[in-house]
Amino acid sequence: PAWGLRTYLAVRGGIAVEPVLGSRSTDSLSELGPEPLRAGTLLPVGPPGGDIVADLAPLPGPRPAVLRVLPGPRDDWFTPEAPAALCAGPYVVSQDSNRVGVRLSGPELVRAKEGELPSEGMVAGAVQVPPSGQPIVFLADHPPTGGYPVIAVVTAADLAVAAQLRPGDEVRFTTRPAR
Q: Is residue 167 in a domain?
């Protein structure tokens, strides 16, 4: 794509591969589905289906990307300055990012409490902070539980923007609502 990291290809008739758990996509994390695509891969196409309903391609967003956040359930585990540091940014997307989460490097988010939390439920958009102080924004393939404190949660409206961030992209956080 010209902008973003992920895109979907729709082919009239669909991709004619054996479905796994009702899907023809590849889940490389679980190693389910057909082999991942490589340069030169030829995809078998099924017979034509109905009309294409709409173009759902994501529109390019502002650069640097700005993600709106709400206070997280464990923001009390951080110093009073940490939420402001999160929003002061900027952060840069790490090469280690994937569909589990966008790993960021930038201003360190300092904890006020030591130790670890018991594992608790996680949601897409949770901004979890490991001992390194560098935040991770959980995406679609996030684990169901986590043990690091969550300082903030990206709004549902901005999750698609987070999912399109590429390694090296700059991102900022804000607590301001959309206009």
A: yes
* Per-residue confidence (pLDDT) for residue 61, from 0 to 100: 66
CA atoms within 13 A on the CB side of 107: 15
Amino acid at 32: L
**Which amino acid makes up residue 72?**
G
Tokens of 53: 């309903």
Domain total for the chain? 1
Q: What angle do CA 121, 89, 142 make, to 5 degrees?
A: 25
Radius of gyration of the chain (CA): 19
Q: Which residue has the tokens 């840069």?
A: 92
Domain limits for position 117: 65-174
- Residue at 83 is within a domain: yes
In this predicted structure, the answer to whether residue 4 has a pLDDT above a threshold of 80 is: no
CATH number for the domain harbouring residue 83: 2.40.100.10
pLDDT value, residue 57:
60
**Are 139 and 99 contacting, i.e. CB atoms less than 8 angstroms apart?**
yes
Beta partners for residue 127, in sequence order = 137, 152
Return the bridge partners of 153, or none: 70, 126
Q: Mind listing the pLDDT tens digit for each residue in 63-108?
A: 789 999 999 999 999 999 999 999 998 999 999 999 999 999 999 9
**Which pLDDT band holds residue 24 (cuts at 50, 70, 90)?**
confident
